[in-house]
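User: Fold this one for me? It's CRAL-TRIO domain-containing protein.
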Amino acid sequence: MEKNQEIALTQLRKSVEKLGSSTEGYGNPTLMRFLIARSMDQDKAAKMFVQWQNWRAAIVPNGVISESEIEDELEPRKIYLQGLSKDKYPVMIIKSSKHFPSKDNVQFKKFVVHLLDKTIASSFKGREIGNEKLIGILDLQNIGYKNIDARGLITGFQFLQAYYPERLAKCFILHMPRFFVSVWRMVSRFLEKATLEKIVIVTNEDERQDFIKEVGEEVLPEEYGGRAKLVAIQDVVLAPFEG
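Assistant: Here's what I get for CRAL-TRIO domain-containing protein.
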């Protein structure tokens, strides 16, 4: 690790203590994500870290969101977890045609936390390092107006930005219909520049081939140009977590 990074991490730990919290139990890779997300500004990173700690304590008091808490969101089987990409990032697929705006906003937020936590956890066996990232694939094929959920999209991306800093490696958006373009423009206003730079809207054959190459045929389902089968996230069994 570079000397300036070591200094920044030391200062971050001190700044967190000044805010009345602690970084005990969190390794450098985890703390570096917050520093990177705040352009290496230790005070801003410390504030973000403490806000994340308070948020986790409130929304995930038991450390995990159980499937019994989010049964309504799991029932449509709209989220798929496909294994690791060529760069060893877990690949999550969202089939938007199976999604409808939630009537229970609290359950939906817990659902977002569950799928992000489980996707990240699928990238390691037993023990988290802290710098794991994920690839998201948002498939808009066959969506209708009833499937449009701008608030849900904004919630998902805002959670990634505020509470999962530097967890998103890339997000691919497939089959975007014309009527969705105005929705995406509105959603984009809520996204940080760093997030927008990680989003690729696949619109032609060259981009599709690049998408297949980056993710990998081994984990991509056949309908996306790969050789795998779709695996619903609730059907994925993870290795025991070692804390």
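One thing worth pointing out: The first helix runs from residue 3 to 18.
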